[in-house]
């Protein structure tokens, strides 16, 4: 059952959704915290989410039915602490940095206390780097589309080669995320924290760990699986 917890972010009233012990925020609440106009707070956050949808997992956001939705539509997209932090990185408003810090402190609460501070900083830096790489790829793709209208056939071959290179860079970033998850698994970090840090789903993490063990890149279970998800 969902419960609403009143809170405040720099003078802005916030209703935190307590869902089975984990804290979430609705898109409209996040938009007001980030400084969007009240009439466009929900729409602004949803547009931000849609532009960066490939960076979010089911651990970051999903849609629930909230009978207390003031707009009358019970279907509401909500975001966890990791989802809010990602939105804070992608937003360009003056409040974005403070909102990220507030989300990691207020929404994560006790769930984040056992995670090493250095690792958290590293993962946030990785999220920022991946976001920047994605924006760079998008900008370069737009440039490529514009060039297509002005170049001859011979030059188009070169542009296709550049496009393939950009795809390789994106795949390299994905491989680095997988290697980070495997190193955390080998170090004995709980899988809940690995999921939160890398943005992977539990199913995808289990698949990568299975293949790594099968290929001899990770040791055997060692009794760990009993407490993993």
How are the SSEs ordered, and which strands pair?
Elements: E1 2-9, E2 12-19, E3 22-26, H1 27-34, H2 41-51, E4 61-65, E5 75-79, H3 81-90, H4 96-107, H5 117-148, H6 153-186, H7 191-198, H8 202-214
Antiparallel strand pairs: 1-2, 2-3, 3-5, 4-5
Helix pairs in contact: 1-2, 3-4, 5-6, 6-7, 6-8
Summarize, please.
This protein has 229 residues and is an alpha+beta fold. Helices cover 56% and strands 14% of the residues.
Describe this structure in words.
The chain has 229 residues and is an alpha+beta fold. The chain has two domains: 2-112, Mlu1-box Binding Protein, DNA-binding Domain; 117-227, no CATH class. The protein has eight helices and five strands, in the order E-E-E-H-H-E-E-H-H-H-H-H-H. The chain has helices at 27-34, 41-51, 81-90, 96-107, 117-148, 153-186, 191-198, 202-214; strands at 2-9, 12-19, 22-26, 61-65, 75-79. Strands 1-2-3-5-4 form a five-stranded antiparallel β-sheet. Strand 2 and strand 3 form a beta hairpin. The longest helix is centred in the last third of the chain and has 34 residues, at 153-186. It starts with a strand and ends in a 15-residue tail after the last helix.
